[in-house]
């Protein structure tokens, strides 16, 4: 474990806790993309299968359970909670997220470290996570005023993978870990998708004005 | 085939 990875995990954990808090306290999921949340459930289920087959550490196991539980809980709130589901921007959240699942799976069948079920699903989860934020970013451009909690949620979510990139650089040089192109390239693509959001987020934070993405 | 160390990551 290194500081970049710990910071990345904490940023990721904080993002999902912030989102859950927003939904629970405001009883609203306005501005949140259900499609992105559902893609994240698929990402976590596909990636954390080794939860049952390989024990790394208490921390590793607990965090995997937390990420699966929170992502499922958020989807439940947005789909079934009688008050919250009314606030879902159904008409704006129109990205057909099921379209990205087959290409990611096909790519995982073609490009992977090893052709086993666990490895292909793990690779699939990396490719899917790289594009999972797309519905949310598109919804943001359509949302009139983005509330602070939502902006902070997306910032932390983007920061987590950016910190993971630093973690991979650290491990490559310090632990002489071998190159893991699949993780690196997926992580780069994922972080790059946040580039313009980061720009507008930091600008709004500097000028102390409302976060606004150009349509 | 030794497990990639990356698997200890989230």
Summarize the structure.
The complex is a heterodimer of chains A (215) and B (10). Chain A is mostly helical and 215 residues long. Chain A is built from nine helices and no strands.
Protein described:
Chain A: InterPro entries: ER_ret_rcpt. The complex is a heterodimer of chains A (215) and B (10). Chain A has 215 residues and is mostly helical. In chain A, 68% of the residues lie in helices and 0% in strands. Chain A contains nine helices and no strands. Chain A has helices at 3-26, 34-47, 58-80, 101-110, 117-131, 134-142, 148-174, 181-193, 195-206. In chain A, helix 1 (3-26) packs antiparallel against helix 7 (148-174), helix 2 runs antiparallel to helix 3 and helix 2 (34-47) runs antiparallel to helix 5 (117-131). The model of chain A has no long low-confidence stretch (mean pLDDT 95). Chain B has 10 residues and is largely without helices or strands. Chain B is 0% helix and 0% strand. Chain B has no helices and no strands. Chain B is rod-shaped and about 20 Å long. The termini of chain B are far apart. Chains A and B meet through helix 1, helix 3 and helix 7 of A and loops of B.
């Amino acid at each position: 474990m290194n500081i970049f990875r710990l910071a990345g995990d904490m940023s990721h954990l904080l993002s999902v806790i912030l989102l859950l808090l927003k939904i629970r306290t405001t009883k609203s999921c306005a501005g949140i993309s259900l499609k992105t949340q559902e893609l994240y459930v698929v990402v976590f289920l596909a990636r954390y299968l080794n939860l049952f087959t390989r024990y790394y550490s208490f921390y590793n196991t607990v965090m995997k359970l937390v990420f699966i539980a929170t992502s499922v809980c958020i989807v439940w709130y947005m789909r079934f909670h009688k008050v919250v589901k009314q606030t879902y921007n159904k008409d704006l959240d129109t990205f057909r997220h099921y379209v990205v699942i087959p290409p990611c799976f096909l790519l995982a069948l073609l490009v992977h470290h090893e052709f086993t079920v666990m490895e292909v699903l793990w690779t699939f989860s990396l490719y899917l996570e790289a594009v999972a934020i797309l519905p949310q970013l598109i919804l943001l451009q359509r949302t009139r005023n983005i509330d602070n909690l939502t902006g902070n949620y997306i910032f932390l979510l983007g920061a987590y993978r950016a910190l993971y990139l630093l973690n991979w650089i650290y491990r490559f040089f310090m632990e002489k870990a071998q190159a893991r192109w699949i993780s690196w390239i997926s992580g780069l693509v994922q972080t790059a998708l946040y580039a313009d959001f980061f720009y507008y987020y930091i600008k709004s934070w500097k000028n102390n004005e409302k976060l606004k993405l150009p349509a | 085939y030794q497990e990639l160390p990356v698997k200890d990551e989230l």
